[in-house]
Specification:
The chain is an alpha+beta fold. The protein folds into two domains: 182 residues, Regulatory protein AraC (Jelly Rolls), CATH 2.60.120.280; 108 residues, Orthogonal Bundle (Arc Repressor Mutant, subunit A), CATH 1.10.10.60. The protein is built from ten helices and eleven strands. α3 packs across α4 and α4 crosses α5. The longest helix has 31 residues. The chain is globular and about 55 Å long. The chain starts with a strand and ends with a helix. Pfam families: AraC_N, HTH_18. This is HTH araC/xylS-type domain-containing protein. GO terms for molecular function: DNA-binding transcription factor activity; sequence-specific DNA binding. InterPro entries: AraC_XylS_family_regulators (IPR050204), Homeodomain-like_sf (IPR009057), HTH_AraC (IPR018060), HTH_AraC-typ_CS (IPR018062), Tscrpt_reg_AraC-type_HTH (IPR020449), Tscrpt_reg_HTH_AraC_N (IPR009594).
């Protein structure tokens, strides 16, 4: 039987609401005061999703700006220090956390079968800390979980558990993508798919087409498409666009002009670039620049 609880208010977290089930706990935090270096530790795999506002996450020697439309995943036993630069009384920083037991992750992982044994090791191994933009499907699941507290019924945790099962599946699949991409950087010549990925990353300002990737990978169009869908959950064309958008974010963070960045990366019109950028990051390029400037 699921239960819902409200934590005792603390100095920084004015409100924490939790829904707890057998293998998971969903919490919503509202933070009302700006503060730096607030400690946060987890005992199980935990996904944090920004709903409103921003945070700066410090893990070991790494620092990440954490925005809506993104997830920050911590492995069991990990901890971070968090800065709340934007929190205020009339506009609190809101964050959803989903804590998932080892058993739940194991159940889902055991049901996944990766056809390519090259990457089999990644199906049950997640990074210690992982910051990533949310795919549309993941964002939809987070939206559903953020409203689970409004479910005033005995079905509350069942609804949450169904969404969490799919969320774990997507995390494991996405981690496979992470492993594949890292492997392609470390060993770009080890096999055909890595060669194609390396080509895209090294030619982000070029106008690549599928035939060029097929030539680099020594694969047919059908085989290349199948490999991308299986291991990266996207088509080759989608991977090219996503790689360009990630490069765009880095250029904008470095002070790049929106129009110049869009043309440099091969987008035919800034409006098309703006639309695709917002689809990926949940913010327009102008909003992205504004948030980056506010947190530096």
């Amino acid at each position: 039987m699921a239960n819902i609880s409200v934590a005792v208010p603390k100095k920084l977290v004015e409100n924490r609401v939790a829904v707890t089930g057998e293998h998971s706990q969903v919490c919503m935090y509202d933070t009302y005061l700006p503060e730096d270096a607030v400690g946060f530790s987890v005992s199980e795999l935990t996904l944090c999703a920004m709903i409103t506002g921003t945070k700066i996450m410090h893990h070991v020697n790494d620092q990440k700006l954490f925005r809506p439309g993104e997830s920050y995943v911590l492995a069991a036993g990990e901890s971070v220090n968090i800065d709340f630069p934007e929190a205020r009384l009339d506009q609190p920083t809101k964050c959803l956390t989903i804590e998932i037991s080892r058993e739940k992750v194991r159940q889902v992982a055991n049901q996944l079968c990766l056809a390519d044994s090259t990457y089999e090791q990644s199906s049950d191994m997640l990074p210690m800390a992982w910051h990533t933009p949310n795919a549309p499907q993941t964002q939809a699941l987070i939206h559903k979980l953020s409203h689970v507290f409004e479910e005033h019924s005995r079905d509350r945790m069942l609804v949450a558990d169904l969404a969490i099962t799919e969320l774990v599946l997507r995390l494991l699949r996405q981690n496979t993508c992470h492993f594949v991409l890292q492997h392609s950087q470390d060993e770009p010549d080890s096999h055909g798919l890595n060669a194609a990925l390396h080509l895209v990353r090294k030619n982000v300002t070029s106008d690549l087409d599928i035939d060029m990737l097929c030539k680099a990978a020594c694969m047919s169009r059908t085989n290349l498409y199948q490999k991308f869908k299986l291991l990266l959950n996207c088509t080759p064309a989608e991977f090219i666009i996503n790689t360009k958008l990630e490069a765009a974010a880095r250029l904008l963070n470095a002070g790049g002009n929106i129009t110049e960045v869009s043309y440099t990366l091969g987008f035919r019109h800034p409006s098309h670039f703006t639309r695709r950028f917002k689809q990926k990051f949940g913010l327009s390029p102008r909003q992205y620049i504004g948030q980056s400037a506010a947190n530096h």
